[in-house]
Automatic annotation (TrEMBL):
Belongs to the bacterial ribosomal protein bL21 family. This is Large ribosomal subunit protein bL21m. It comes from the Eukaryota. The keyword Lipid biosynthesis does not apply. GO terms for biological process: translation. SUPFAM superfamilies: L21p-like. Keywords: Ribonucleoprotein, Ribosomal protein, RNA-binding, rRNA-binding. Transmembrane segments: none annotated. GO terms for cellular component: cytoplasm; ribonucleoprotein complex; ribosome. GO terms for molecular function: rRNA binding; structural constituent of ribosome. PROSITE patterns: RIBOSOMAL_L21 (PS01169). Residues 62-104 are annotated as: Disordered. It comes from Arundo donax. Residues 68-91 have a biased composition (Acidic residues).
Amino acid sequence: MASRRCLLRLLSRCLAPQRPQPLAPISISTRTLTSLSDPLASPTPRDLASLRLYYPSRCHFATRSSGDEEDDEEHYDDEESEDEWGEEEEAVAAKKLSGKTEEEKVAEATEIGYTVVGSLGADEKPFKPYEPVFAVVQIGSHQFKVSNGDSIFTERLKFCDVNDKLILNRVLMLGSQAQTVIGRPTLPDATVHAVVEEHALDAKVIIFKKKRRKNYRRTKGHRQELTKLRITNIEGIDKSETVAVAA
């Protein structure tokens, strides 16, 4: 059995075609150059490909010239100019983000019923003790009866942040122990001051829709955006505690 295996191996080696031995790169390049009919003629693409195969292109690193230094200086100048005009670009970007100018924002806020005065300072103390005065103000499409120190939740007010001071201009009625003033429909000289405490979300409301025998069911949730205001002062009415006696 062992001899039979040896004979089979010898026969397979003898009958198998011999693979050509790879030639050295130098001999191939020499043979390619010598095989040209005319040494001065331009080589064929096949010859060039064989040369590139065995002699790959080398990387050449050139030194920097004076022109490159000038380009770098211009690049640094461009960066400085960008820093100078950065503030203006930010203002333009903010305008594009909201899509409205400051005048348009003020007009829209006034139409809703408030005006942004400014941010609350660190040393300011706008909250005062309770006073027996109430006011009915309208913000958007909702009316609120408020007194000094009360907190109310309204729909999200645009163009104002937390700790901003607001003036509620649309006052419908004022009342105290001495008098009651009713507007037609508003009181031009009455104002209610407030401070924005936070922007929050209301409790989730589930909206469920169904159509019987149609395989139609839709469930959706909604959380209304709210703004919490703290009333700080009411102006435009006599706050004396003397009660008027009927004659």
